[in-house]
Amino acid sequence: MSMEQDAGARIRKRNFIISIISTVVFAGGLIWFLRSGVDPDQIRQFLEKCGPLAPVLFIAISVFSSYIPIVPMGSMGSIGIVLFGPVPAFFFNYATSVINCSLGFWMAKKFGDRMILSLTSPKTYEKYQRWARSTKHFTLFFTICMFLPVSPDIILCMLAGLNGMSWKKFLTIILISRPVSSWAYSTGLLKGAEWILKVLHLKQ
After folding, report:
1. How far, in Å, CA of 58 to CA of 54, rounded?
2. Is pLDDT at 18 greater than 80 in this prediction?
3. Strand, helix or coil at 112?
4. What's the rounded Cα separation, in Å, for the pair 170 and 102?
5. Which tens digit of pLDDT belongs to each residue from 115-127?
6. What is the CA radius of gyration of the chain?
7. 42: helix, coil or strand?
C-alpha cells in the first residue's frame, strides 16, 4: 500500500468512527427534540433575529460535514427545511451543493488523487477512474449523475477534476443540475423521516 493509500485509509477510518458517533448523538437529539415539545416556529423566530449569520452558519456546517461527517449524511438538507422553511432551505441547500462540488473539483486539480483516496477506497477509485478513462462519454455520464440525488457527487466531481474537465464546463453542469438533486434529496429525506416518526408514533 502506498503512502497516499495508507493516509487515505486512516482518514476514512477516522471519518467512519465520527459518522457512527454523530449518528447516535443526532438520533438521540432528534428524539429528545420531538418529545420535549419544542415549537419549530420559535426556533425560526430566533434564526430570523440572527439575520444573515444563520444561513451562513448553516451552509458552513453543511459543507464541513460533507467532508468531516459531524452530522449524518444528508441530514442537513432536511434540517434546513425544518429550520428555515422549504423555499429558503432550497436555496441554502443549492448553495451548499455548488460549494461542495466546486471544492471537490478544485482540490482534485490542486492536490491530485490523494484527496479522493481520503473519501473512498483505492478499489472504488480505480473502478471509477478506469471507466472514466476508457469511455468517450464521461461528460454525459457526469451530467446525468449530477442530476441524481443519490450519486456520489463529491467523488465524481473530484474525478472530473482529475480527468481534465474545464472549470467552465464543470460549473455549467453543476449550476444546472444541482437544483434538481438538492430538492429531491432534502425533500425525500424529510418525507422519509416523517414516515418513520409516524411508524414510531412520535408524530401524529
Report:
1. 6
2. no
3. coil
4. 8
5. 777 777 777 778 7
6. 18
7. helix
